[in-house]
Amino acid sequence: MTTPKRSLLKIILLGDSGVGKTSLMNQYVYKKFRAQYKATIGADFVTKELQIDDKLVTLQIWDTAGQERFQSLGVAFYRGADCCILVFDVNVLKSFETLQVWHQDFLKQVDPSNPEKFPFVLIGNKVDVDGGNSRVVSEKTAREWCEAKGNIPYFETSAKEDYNVEDAFINCAQIALATHPINIWPLDEEMPSHCDLERIQESMTGADLPRGGCAC
Ligand code: GDP
Ligand code: MG
């Protein structure tokens, strides 16, 4: 008899501080939005189960602990990523310009065998702000960037108003499933539901961690 399996996908969120990465994750996973700014503490991942076609998929979504301000996320963060969601704020030009650096950094750290085919998704967040009047990056400009990077899917979202958030994450899972040999986790084995990145990094003195997993 074969044990039913589920796929485990590691998804990482990258982008400048303040663009709404944590808010997007919280909106998608917990359906919650927090208006006041609270720097992410104890970066880790959260999991979300979903079904795509006939496949049971567990998304392991990794958010930063705000270390993106120092551009030092560490190897554990990137290791074994199946899809990378790049996020910018449509009202902040700098956050769009920096995408280039995040994209490059990611490829450098992960070093995928086929970088042109690696699944990325781009999110232009905060489209709700000021009814769109303070927007400085147009949809056209964002789409051109995506095209130049090998047709990355693009989503305009509002984590605040829960606009397009789920679609962006589901698309990310779909393209990751389509392009990656995936991690299979037996259904009867407990999977960690969250994890403290600092603990992982501390425990990472030379020893190799399981792909997409942690030592907690
Ligand atoms: P991170 O540093 O990328 O994780 O960004 P956060 O998720 O912490 O968000 C930074 C700030 O932007 C917080 O005050 C959020 O409440 C706010 N924010 C995030 N997403 C949205 C959005 O879609 N619309 C609006 N108006 N504010 C948002
Ligand atoms: Mg954050």
From TrEMBL:
Keywords: GTP-binding, Lipoprotein, Membrane, Methylation, Nucleotide-binding, Prenylation, Protein transport, Transport. It is found in: Endomembrane system. GO terms for biological process: protein transport. InterPro entries: Small_GTP-bd, Small_GTPase. It holds the Pfam family Ras. The keyword tRNA processing does not apply. GO terms for molecular function: GTP binding; GTPase activity. Belongs to the small GTPase superfamily. Rab family. This is Ras-related protein Rab-7A. It comes from Salvia splendens (Scarlet sage).
